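Dear Dr. L.,

I hope this message finds you well. Following up on our conversation about the binding site, I have prepared a predicted three-dimensional model of the protein together with pyridoxal-5'-phosphate. For your records, I am including the exact sequence and ligand specification that went into the calculation, followed by the structure tokens. Please feel free to forward this to your student if that is useful.
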Amino acid sequence: MEPTAAAPALPRSLEQIRAEFPILGREVRGRPLAYLDNGATSQKPLAVIEAMDAFYRERNANVHRGVHTLSEEATADYENARATVAAHIGADRRELIFVRNATEALNLVAYSWARHNLSEGDSVLVTEMEHHSNIVPWHLIARERGAELEWAPITDDGRLEMEAFAAALERGPKLVALAHVSNVLGTVNPVAEAARLAHEAGAVVVIDGAQAAPKLELDMASLGADFYALTAHKAYGPTGCGVLFGRRELLEAMPPFNGGGSMIRKVGREEITWAALPAKFEAGTPAIAEAIGFAAALRWLDELGLEAVHAAELELSAYALGRLGEVPGLRLFGPPAGPDRGGILSFELEGVHPHDVSEILDRHGVAARAGHHCAQPLMERLGVPATTRASLAVYNTREEVDRLIEGLADVRTIFDG
Ligand SMILES: Cc1ncc(COP(=O)(O)O)c(C=O)c1O
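The resulting structure of the complex is given below.
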């Protein structure tokens, strides 16, 4: 599939973009690295590495504490990072809580909102394609509160089954938790439509945006999310930093998640009052350099233009899906190439365990992941214990996809004898 005429091109050549990622210049097993494990974590451009390096070299201090110059500079950098992320997703800075990753963002909602709003007999609706991060916190809190976990099914080609989803909403779940982009199937879910239906049914909507942030323009108002979880390291940023967006009135009404320094207004022997948003949810010293790195990553993405990034990914995905379709005995999971199919390509190669596939690909310098991808209920639905997954980023090339296909041909040769 070619990008539509309207889709803008990337402002720099692929060669120039690749040159901004030092790690892409290295070799693995004597071959140039073909990094196709971006669903696990993306590589980092110089813009991010240098922003973090400059912080540690020139401005490092703790934030929100000192009145000395360095502390004020560090606080300004950290709060500017928040403003950058907030602007990127169309949110108010008070609605944006820095956390460690998407997992922590989802746990924050579970242990603050859900713990205080779920009662015996209530239910939480999740889908069959969720990552464990968007299952296990709901499972734990549902068990604690005597509530039920319900499952919205997917179609055989890996899309959300919308009629069944609407039917599940009629049973009145208190909360609906849904991935924006599946980390196994590449499906881009119709989250705005799902949120609209869920709101009509009176549910609070939590969107797991871990795989969406590196490729989609995000606007919280038009998505209609009540809560949205992001993780920096999959979006060209560092590990150790994520974001929870929450609608202000919900966050205002929620109790803190962690207790400690920075999140209080006043601590007395009998009574404690909480700091205003967003500090109420940011106990302890935050990941300062990482927040700065995350903001640098989003500025870098915005400079490329997310529409162009997405269009490039759709084009490379369509190429990769076509080439994978030529491999004998290969079963692909997820929707066919199209606008709701991102560059996450999971497959099974008949008669070969995904770990063997991945190990042989590694001999070709191709990094692809094998396993259940923290989505065991989905594996059960697909009827496989594990898959091999190649996941694309903006710096990947057709040549790297061709090397994946050559590696798979080698797997066939080795296993067919
Ligand atoms: C869809 C999805 N949700 C959540 C997560 C969890 O992200 P993190 O490990 O950064 O918290 C992942 C990570 O693979 C993911 O793919």
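In brief: Residues 49-302 form a domain with the Aspartate Aminotransferase; domain 2 fold (CATH 3.40.640.10).

With kind regards,
A. P.
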